[in-house]
Amino acid sequence: MDGEDISNPKMEDMCANGIGGVEDAPSSSTSTTERKNRPIISGEQLDIEAYAGLYSGRTKITRLIFIADHCDNTAMQMEALRMAYDEIKRGENTQLFREVVQKIDGRLGPDYSMDAAWCATVDRKAEQRKDKLESELNAYRTNLIKESIRMGYNDFGDFYYAHGALGDAFKSYVRTRDYCTTSKHIIQMCLSAILVSIEMGQFTHVTSYVSKAEQTSEALDPPTTAKLRCAAGLAHLEAKKYKLAARKFLEVGPELGNSYSGVIAPQDVATYGGLCALASFDRTELKNKVIDNINFRNFLELVPEVRELINDFYSSHYASCLEYLGNLKSNLMLDIHIHDHVEILYDQIRSKALIQYTHPFLSVDLRMMADAFKTSVAGLENELESLIADNQIQELSDCEDQKCK
User: Fold this and answer.
1) How far apart are CA 162 and CA 82, in angstroms?
2) pTM
C-alpha cells in the first residue's frame, strides 16, 4: 500500500500495538507480565444446566429449544431438549410439549416420549378453567365492577400465556387498560404486554409499552425502571440500533438483580451492553460510559470475558481482545436475542480496532499488524483498503518497506 514516508516518534509504540498499552489505559488493566500469565478463556462448551438456571418461565424453555435447534453438538441438543421437556411438564403448555417431543423423536428413551395422558389431563383442566374464567368475567361485566373486570381480563391473560396462546394473552392484557384505576395497574398492564411481545418477537409493541410505562413515572420503582430499560435495550438490539441498545443496557441499575429472569439475566445485560458499546461507542464514550460506569462494572463482573475484552480493546491489546471474541462466538450464536447480530457486531468491533490501531499513523508494520489481528498481510491490506475507501482511515504505507523500525 502506497503512502507518505514520515518519521514518527511513536512508531515503536505503534509497532508494539496488540501487546503494549496506552497512557490512559484503565486502572483496572493488568500489567504486561500479569497479562502474559493470565489464561485466555478456552471457548469451553456451554454449560447448559448453568445457563438455563439463569432463567425462568417460558423464556427458559424457548432458550433451551433455541440451543437444541442451533447447535451442532448432538449431546448438547439432547441435554437441552431433556431439560426443556422436564420444564414444560411443570407447566400447562401442551402445544410446546408436543413440539419438544417431536424434536426428541424417541432419542432419549421412554421417559421422554409422548405423554398423551398428561396432555389430555392438562387440556381438560384448561377447558374447565377457561369456562370458569368466562363465567366470572361475564358476571363482572354485567355488574360493571371495574376492578373485577380488570382482574378478570388479567386472569385470562395469565391463562392464555401459560397455555402458549400468546396472541390471545396479549389481547387480554391490553384490554385491562380501560379498567385501570391506578398508576400501578397501568404499569402491570405494560409489563405484561411487554413480556408477551418479547416472546412473540413483536418489538414494536415492546417499544410502545415501555414508553407508556415510562409516562407513568410516579409509579415506577427502581426494579421496574431496570426492567423497562432491559426491554428497551432488547427492542433496540432487534432493530440493529446498537448505540441506543448499549445506552439502555448501560442504564440498567443493580436493582434488577434476578427479578427479570423471565426475560433476561444480569449476565445478558453485561454481554449485550458491552458488545453493543464496543461496536458503536467512540473511545471517550467507552471510557466514560462503560469502563468508569460503576453500576455496569458490577454487571461485567458476572461475565469476566466481556469485561476483559472491553479493557483489552480500550488498552489497544487487540490480539487478546480478538481472541476473547473468538472464544465467545460459538456460545453467543446460541443466544436467542444476540445470535443474529454477532457477525455485524464483530465486524464493527474489528473495523473500529483497525481504525484505532492505525490512528494517527501514516505508516504501519503490516506483518506485525496482521499478526495482532490474526490474519494474513494480504487479508489485512484488503480490510485497510476498504476502510480507506470509506474514508474511515487515511492511506497508509508499510513501515517495513519504509525501514522505519
Assistant:
1) 20
2) 0.82
